[in-house]
Amino acid sequence: MRIAPKHTERAAVAIMWILASVMMGVLVFIIAYVLAHGLPHVTWTFLTASPESMGREGGILPMIVGTLWIIGLAVALAAPIGVATAVYLTEYTREGRLTDVIRFGSDCLAGIPSIIFGLFGLVLFGIMLGLGFSIISGALTVALMVLPTIIRTSEEAIRAVPRAYRDVSYGLGSTRWQMVTRVVLKSALPGIATGIVLAIGRTISETAALMFTAGSALGMPHSIFDSSRTLALHFYILALEGISMSKAYATAAVLVLAILVINLSAYALMRRFVARVV
Amino acid sequence: MTAPTTMIMRAMAAVRHGLRRENLIAAGLLVLALSAISGLALIAAFIFKEGVPIILKIGVGRFIFSSDWHPLEGEFGIFPMIVGSLWVTVGAMVIAVVFGLGCAVLLTQFCPKQLVSIIKPSIELLAGIPSVVYGFIGVVILVPFIRDWLGGPGLSVLASSIVLGVMTLPTVTSISVDALQAVPLPYREGSIALGATQWQTTHMVVLKAARSGIVAAVILGMGRAIGETMAVIMVAGNTLDLPHSILDPVRTLTSNIALEMGYAAGDHQKALFATGVTLFVIIMILNTIALLVSRRRGARARNR
Q: How confident is the model at residue B80 (pLDDT cuts 50, 70, 90)?
């Protein structure tokens, strides 16, 4: 007996809804679990004190500062290069072998595991350039890691700018560079910002690449040449070595909250961009 | 008499000057645009420089196919880790493909718009959660569950596959969504007009047309799973034995590097870089396949 196509369809759609619900359930569970166990331990002192006895007591201020330094430096390096690459690909050249090579490089770089970035950063920045375990080594490594994200999102944002904008700008007698900087980049800005926000999110989550480049010093970093443990690595060490579960949960809660805020702002930016351009 | 000529000459000079400036800008942008590919080349150069000599010293065959990893005795064989990475990745892909493809088809073909705007950002959020948090949830929830209900030590291929499956699901979903959305509307309309139901259209027409994009999604997801480090360290158990069932603990290529790099020196450290070389080669092969597959799709779309 053949099953009527109508019934097959109903069954297939039902199965897909179940799959999607399970996935949503997992997401909600992870966030709720971490926040429920961690938020009660997140106090003002936890956020503003230095850790004591390996993190068993005290807070996470040096890790927050170190993470912010790495984010700031990495974005300051990767954003201009990424946007310039996107501008070159979209406005300054025709599709050809060269653009293929540039895109291939960017796509492959996006697929390289973070542990490989960590090894690379350790050898080049840590040992060869003599930067050792430091914020700057970590930031340089992560900048290379997030570069493809920024290139891709900027390129999409620039492509979404209507052609008419460019034509009008040329019609008013502007040069290509004036057209790019004053018209195209201006209207693509929210899209580019989305890419930068996503890059910040990746930096916060990153552990393996920073373990061997930024190091795991617990103290407050005083310059970019000091080693500094990031939040994610601090959480990993606390949890894996069983130093303090309550501090580990609290750190995880801070991490998850940061990611939530970042993703929501990326989403809001994207909506604004879509509303403006389309 | 001379005024118009000077003006023209001035204008021409200005244009020449502008052109020169434009050329300079174009050259500068090109240099910056080459930084991604140069970065990739640098990474390859450094990892290979550190890792390849020791592989040659040991012998490629012995390095890859020997199961003896005893750094103190100078024996470096990574076969168990290759097998470990393979098991874990295959397991993760089963989960990521079933869930990821299901979600992608649902989102593009059957889901009301309002729900898409909830589910899609949620999937992106899933991609944003730090891998250490995934690993930790794996340790506190999944590992005890497997130990109590299925047996074994809990830290296992199964636990790693589930954690990695959830982690790579966003990659598989979002690339599949792109592939499904790229299928031209007339394909769907044609099929519906012939009397096919929505589901028949989906699995007979849309999924077939998006096949290469979906293959690329799965391959890129595999790359993610093989390359993931921190979460796997936490739930895989990291033993050096070959696994015999999905409940056995394993060590992957990535965790081997991350676990021992902190204290390794000399040949041991070089052998860890050699592990990195193996990983790098696997990832580049996967990336290239994914790019070729999706480029073929691009070429076909242009021919239409």
A: very high
Domains and CATH numbers, chain B: 58-303 (1.10.3720.10)
Contact B132 A81 (CB under 8 A): no
Burial B35-54, CB ≥16 within 10 A → b, else e? bbbebbeebbebbbebbeeb
Which of residues 66 through 125 in chain A touch B, CB cutoff 8 A?
Answer: 80-81, 84-85, 87-89, 92-93, 101-102, 104-109, 111-120, 122-124
- pTM, two decimals, is 0.90
Smallest Cα–Cα separation from B214: which of B111, B105, B91, B113? Answer: B105
Q: What confidence score (pLDDT) does residue A67 get?
A: 94
DSSP code of A53?
A: G
The strand pair at A51-52 and A57-58 is best described as antiparallel
User: Inter-chain contact A201–B99, Cβ cutoff 8 Å?
Assistant: no
Q: Tell whether the model's pLDDT for residue A278 goes beyond 60.
A: no
Instruction: Report the alpha-carbon angle A131-A135-A137, nearest 5.
Output: 45
Closest residue to A108, CB basis, from B130, B166, B287: B287
User: What is the per-residue pLDDT for A54?
Assistant: 81
Specify the 3-state DSSP secondary structure of B128.
helix
